[in-house]
Amino acid sequence: MATFPQVPVAEADDATLAIYRQAMAAAGAGSPALFFRHSAIYPGMLDWLWSAVGPDIAAGWPSREVWKIVDDHPVVALPGLPMDDAGRDTVRNMLVSYNRMNSMNYAIVGAVRGLVTGDGPPPPQTPFSETPFTPPPPMPDLPPPRRLNELDADQRAAVLKVCRTHRPIQIGGQVVDVPPTLYMHAALWPVYYTAAMREVDNAMDALDAATQDLAAQCAPLIGQVLANARARDPGPPPLDDPADLISVMDAFMYLSPHMVVVGRALEVALDA
Predict the structure, then answer these.
(1) For the segment 242-272, what is each residue's pLDDT rounded down to a tens digit?
(2) CA-to-CA distance for 85 and 92, rounded, in angstroms?
(3) Phi, psi of 177 (to 5 degrees)
(4) Taking Cα atoms as reference points, which of 267, 265, 271 lies closest to residue 78?
(5) Which end of the chain is more exposed for a tag (fewer CB within 10 A), N or C?
(6) Exposed, middle or buried by CB within 10 Å (0-12, 13-18, 19+), for 146?
(7) How many Cβ atoms from other residues are within 10 Å of residue 123's Cβ?
(8) For residues 90-113, b (16+ Cβ closer than 10 Å) or e, as one string?
(9) Which long-range contacts (CB under 8 A, 24 or more apart) does 120-125 make?
């Protein structure tokens, strides 16, 4: 399988990094979402995306509203996971950062997908409050994650196994591996990573069901962000052929809420 293309933070130019930083600030997160890093490979796409949804995201209200939904959603129980005291705070920061960003990312992906494809959920009959909201201070910047090709055979097999419920992505006619960056960060702590992959695998049926439920609860919020983006009339996306990006977004419509469900379960298990 091919590697999922993206522009990492360390390789981003100033304009791209500026949007990454705005998204991170809006989510109170220490890393930009993978969807942003992938969108940056298409010339002009990240700027177009931000012109459409950025004003709402920067105002903070979608983060507040999606976090309310997530906070009210039941957490899937996992056994306590091993982590030494020296790494515990960094891992907790990592999980909080991803849980914040992945929640907001779902609203963004859903709205952008609707703009590109022309469909998407309708706005809610009772709108969410759009009162501006100041997110909590961003979590500390995270260390660079491991790359899939840096993992040993057992580690690679473990992460690909827990990705089995993810929707396949095709780019340029090739199926690509898209291991979530949360998992690649967790691999910086091998003992913790091995235990986390085992317990996520064991709980996959419950995690998958919770993902479907959370996605349905977030649909009205996506509809409102999408309606606002359409009202801004950003024009057509700067894509000669949107098929690859649509494939990515279709996959992320499952992956984003799924990683919120997984991340919250891991966060609670860290302190179990």
Answers:
(1) 999 999 999 999 999 999 999 999 999 997 7
(2) 11
(3) -80, 130
(4) 265
(5) C
(6) buried
(7) 18
(8) bbbbbbbbbbbbbbbbbbbbbbbb
(9) 120/222, 120/223, 120/226, 121/219, 121/220, 121/222, 121/223, 121/226, 122/223, 122/227, 123/220, 123/223, 123/224, 123/226, 123/227, 124/220, 124/221, 124/223, 124/224
266 within 8 A of 78, measured Cβ to Cβ: yes
Residue 199 identity: E
Name the one residue in this structure whose structure tokens are 């967790």: 186
Query: 44 — alpha (psi -120 to 50), left (phi > 0) or beta?
Result: left
Cα separation of 225 and 166, whole Å? 24
Burial class (CB in 10 A: 0-12, 13-18, 19+), 164: exposed
* Listed residue (46, 266, 42, 75) closest to 172, CA to CA: 42
Sign of the Cα torsion 151, 152, 157, 162 reads negative
| Matching residue, tokens 């010339």 | 43
Q: How many CA atoms lie within 13 A of 271 on its CB side?
A: 9
